[in-house]
Amino acid sequence: MSSHESNYKPTSRFGKWLDDRLPVGRLMHGQFVDFPTPRNLNYWWTFGGILTFCLVAQLVTGIVLAMHYQPSAAEAFNSVDHIRRDVNYGWMIQAMHATGSSMFFLAAYIHLFRGLYYGSYKAPREILWILGVFIILAMMATAFMGYSLPWGQMSFWAVTVITNLFSSLDSIIPGVGTAIVQWLWGGYSVSGSTLNRFFALHYLLPFVIVGLVALHIWALHVVGQNNPAGLDIKTKSDSVPMYPYAVAKDAVGLFAFLLVFAWFVFFLPDYLGHADNFIEANPLVTPPHIVPEWYFLPYYAILRAVPSKLGGVILMFASIAILAFAPWLDTARVRSSKYRPIYKWFFWLFVFTCLALGYLGAKPAEGSYVAWARVFTAYYFLHFIVVMPILGLIETPKKLPGSITEDVLGPGAGKGATAGAAAAPETR
Amino acid sequence: MSSHAEESNRRDFLVIAANAFAGVGAAVTLWPFIQQMNPDKSALALASTEVDLSPVKEGQAITVMWRGKPVFIRNRTADEVKSAQDVPVKELPDDVARNENLAADAPATDQNRTAKGHENWLVVIGICTHLGCIPKGQALGDAKGDYGGWFCPCHGSHYDTAARIRKGPAPRNLDVPPFAFISDTKIKIG
Ligand code: HEM
Ligand code: FES
Known about the structure:
By secondary structure, chain A is mainly alpha-helical. Chain A has 17 helices and two strands. Chains A and B meet through helix 7 and helix 8 of A and loops of B.
């Protein structure tokens, strides 16, 4: 894949035999053991490993839940109760899965903002970045369908409100929106048929995510990792092998993350959920205040900020789609915001905007809440279509370090040791 | 030379024909896999329901289920009827009746929202036309919104006493389902 050559040497006879027939060991060694990683990575780079852990954890706990869960309108609510009360260790595994999805999104959002701050979306990592946007979308679809499964009041009404978004297409071609909504429901309202198909898709989509993640990592290992300085690996001294260096750092990050994860699982298992979801779904009564899970709040705020039904839906989807265009909207010459004195402030303004939208999404859609949601929705998009292209052209970046090695060891470092190497490109 | 050109033309034709055939075949095979998700005939089977209105006193409302959807039936007071009749149609955000028993372009007058001779009875599908929540207003203590009809708490849509949208994000009046009086105190919905 990338320019380095693996120094894999199978030791056992079986290893040699296998290497001539199916070199998986060689592939893994080359990609995950002696793969060159920039020597200046900080802890924000441990979230990729953390996300991989989250995905596996959701798969394992999810498959266990599916062994006890019943996807029918009559039984779903009771079967989740049964998992939590009766199934051996069901209380723990259910809590791991339910809080696991929040942790997964937390890690994904940190990972995404890391990419935005350090310019990881810029050439040559455009495909890598776009695959990430697809992963976020697939995660959203998965979590949305998963949330329907406990068949509580919030499950039911979240499905109703979100599937109904498609009915806004009626205002373009009358009848099309309604047809799509009834196709999604398998009926004239949200019903057991809807639940059943959502369960099937909730089981399927995580495996689609596994496939997307494989492509994401493949693309990463073709172009190599970005790093806090936003520089490319040029000499041998700029990088360290993935094992043990990056792996050890990832492990420290992962365990810190697991402390938070475990805190929620064991002490606050229902804190991130909504009390109304402990009431069984009732198609005749809408809860007074419908809110999505926290990780959907900013989009919900954008949806409600727009006075037109179709317009709200379009902007909501656009808020994610626009991320995919960041590589071309950002005109700056340097990647890392560390060296962009003005953009840095806009970056934090953007982070604040997303948090503010999240806060407003949890509030009722009335009065000043709506007005503020409009202001922040506007800035969300302006950041991409005005700040990114214009600032990149007019801002003068700070002086970059000469190399990744200099970023770590200071100016002039590594020159002597790698002078020859710099002249003749190094292979490891 | 010419035979060579002819040969490749025949090949082109075969390639295009084979691909077109396979393409149509794939599309035809896909269709059942899409269609299986649509509501089936058993969902349509429960298509009509009869409701006895005699226990519903003036000012009261009941909710019945039809095709898995709640139907609001309100025995409106004279005041409620009058306030609905007094609104000029051009003041309404949605000026068509949305009554399945009438033409699609019938104006949204109170007469067109109800059945002739039974103007006190309002029969509508109780699903907010915004994103599908169930508006409040059926129970006596419920918030009924600024226009005394129904209020949808999800995103704040206000409906009047003829269940017409007056304020908020909902685009349409609540739908009047197909229904008919089969006696003075009984209706058949669907
Ligand atoms: C991308 C990974 C996944 C995410 C983000 C995710 C998310 C969710 C969410 C948010 C819930 C609702 C939990 C609650 O509020 O109680 C849920 C429930 C459920 N999920 Fe997943 N899930 C994932 C993978 C899986 C997999 C692979 C399976 C295997 C079949 C699965 C099976 C289930 C089952 C049976 C439930 C219902 C039980 C319950 O509510 O706890 N999930 N999921
Ligand atoms: S669903 Fe009724 S106002 Fe949105």
